Hints:
Blueprint: E1 5-8, H1 14-21, E2 27-31, H2 42-52, E3 57-62, H3 67-76, E4 81-84, H4 90-100, E5 104-109, H5 114-120, E6 127-131, H6 150-160, E7 164-167, H7 175-179, E8 185-188, E9 193-194, E10 197-198, H8 200-224
Helix pairs in contact: 1-2, 2-3, 5-6
Pfam families: PRAI
GO molecular function, one term: phosphoribosylanthranilate isomerase activity
Pathway: Amino-acid biosynthesis; L-tryptophan biosynthesis; L-tryptophan from chorismate: step 3/5
Amino acid sequence: MREPLVKLCGNRSKQDLAYSADSQATHLGFIFVPGTKRYVRPERAGRWINEVNPDQTLVGVFVEPTIEELEIVLHYVPLDIIQLHGNETVSEVLQIKEHFSLPVWKVIHHADFGVDYMHLFKGAVDGFVVDSKVKGVYGGTGVQFDWEAVPAYRKEAERQGVPCLIAGGITAENAGEVLSYYPGGIDLSSGTETENKKDRNKIQALMREVANYGASISGSKRAVR
Length: 225
């Protein structure tokens, strides 16, 4: 059992990025969807990254972007992963991967047919993020779905050989619960914020919970041996 990935998303200031980078998170996310509350202009994000110089994997979140829109962002921001949060088709995903030679993660909104929808992207994506579905809102809602569904999503991702992160309503207080379902990782925005800004104390509390989980699975491995 691998230790979970941790993505701190929705960084929208240099201070946000500094707090997120000064943690054991594995991935840092930026929202490049105009009109959303966590949207950041790519030139600003690029400047913050140059100044903070984070070690983590950088993820850009988009909703049904054009190639031209992605090119503009990538001109300023050295993204490692493109995350697609809309109704992108398999052919559109493959076009983006071919054009940019970057890994693509696809967001799946939790629903009765969620696992079947994941299966459509087999061989096309490099990871999944399963999030709550809230009408008219693309992520960062603070709303969680029924985590008893997590194992089904995890198993489908494992069959495809890619990670599956869980998003929606995760905080330091409930991270242990969602991690008990052994997802490939967790993805947080609002759960690490106070008054719409990253909260260093909340980030540290979250990472303590993740570390405790990591220690517990390491202990389980030793016990099995």
